[in-house]
Specification:
By secondary structure, this protein is of the alpha+beta class. Helices cover 21% and strands 21% of the residues. Strands 1, 2, 3, 5, 8, 10 and 11 form a seven-stranded antiparallel β-sheet that branches. Strands 4-9-6-7 form a four-stranded antiparallel β-sheet, with no helix packed on it. The two termini are 18 Å apart. Bound molecules: 2-oxoglutaric acid and fe (ii) ion. Fe (ii) ion binds next to loops.
Length: 272
């Protein structure tokens, strides 16, 4: 895994709200990621979350992608991959924060001839608000505009708010709320399998349709800066967790949102 980040890459992330890292995984690592994601997704069946509280619908959205969330919860190999401290350090360095927790991982598998992923922001859906939240998106197949690569509106993270604009089947609905972004050109992010991108969770992004007869597989993880507080939204939490937290309380439950990296010297949980 190539984890080094140059000062230019960090600056580019801060300016544009995303950065693409080519040659992230080598061929052997890519095989491990593909195998683990394949096993974990197969084992989930139609359940999006392990507890079955979110099931796959049979509609337009199910043909955007198969979404299987928090595979680190129920597959040992995914747990090893997702809890890797090196990923947390990359996210912390890009976001400019001290500590990183997993909010949720998710496999996003756009099926053959799959629908596009509408323009959206990530963080407004989550149970905490942060301008520094960040996600990694790892390409498990080569991705191009032909099969549903990501697109970003560079710099949009700077003027985004936390208002949630639901994601529907009109891919451009987000631009009704942010008409100034609707005049800008999007950047496509073609990648070879094994490359990855990081994007700010307030950056406008989407993905094209899959115009090929092959699946477009991606493994992603959403990260929460350590110290983030509950905002009252359920998102992936259980009703019991929602009832337990009060608004403004720090989300620091390691069973729900494990701390995978912290800059403090005494953080050595996963580095042995
Ligand atoms: O893979 C996709 O189609 C969308 C990915 C996305 O929205 C994300 O990773 O936040
Ligand atoms: Fe997203």
């Amino acid at each position: 895994m190539r984890c080094e980040l140059s000062a230019e890459q960090i600056q580019s992330y801060r300016d544009n709200g995303y950065v693409v890292l080519h040659d992230f995984l080598d061929a052997d690592e890519l095989e491990v990621w593909r195998r683990c994601v394949g096993e974990a997704v197969a084992q989930r069946g139609k359940r999006k979350l392990m507890d079955g509280s979110m099931m796959e619908e049979d509609n337009y959205y199910a043909r955007v992608f198969a979404q299987r969330i928090n595979l680190w919860n129920d597959h040992a190999g995914m747990r090893r991959l997702m809890l890797d401290e090196r990923l947390g350090k990359m996210a912390a360095d890009l976001a400019g924060v001290d500590g990183i927790r997993i909010w949720h991982d998710q496999a996003l598998i756009k099926p053959p001839w799959g629908n596009p992923t509408g323009w959206h922001l990530d963080n407004p859906y989550w149970s905490f608000y942060s301008r520094d939240a960040i996600s990694i998106w790892v390409a498990l197949d080569d991705v191009t505009p032909d099969n549903g690569c990501l697109y970003f509106i560079p710099g949009s993270h700077k003027s985004a708010t936390f208002d949630n604009v639901g994601i529907g089947s009109n891919i451009g609905d987000l631009f009704d709320t942010y008409p100034q972004w609707g005049k800008l050109e999007a950047a496509s992010a073609s990648m070879k399998a094994g490359a990855c991108s990081f994007h700010n969770a307030l950056l406008a992004h989407g993905a094209g349709a899959n115009m090929t007869p092959y699946a477009r597989r991606a493994m992603t993880c959403a990260y929460m800066p350590d110290g983030s507080t509950f905002n009252g939204q359920r998102n992936i939490l259980s009703q019991e967790q929602v009832d337990r937290y009060t608004i403004g309380e720090v989300i620091d439950d390691d069973a729900q949102a494990p701390l995978i990296y912290h800059r403090s010297k005494d953080f050595a949980r996963f580095s042995g």
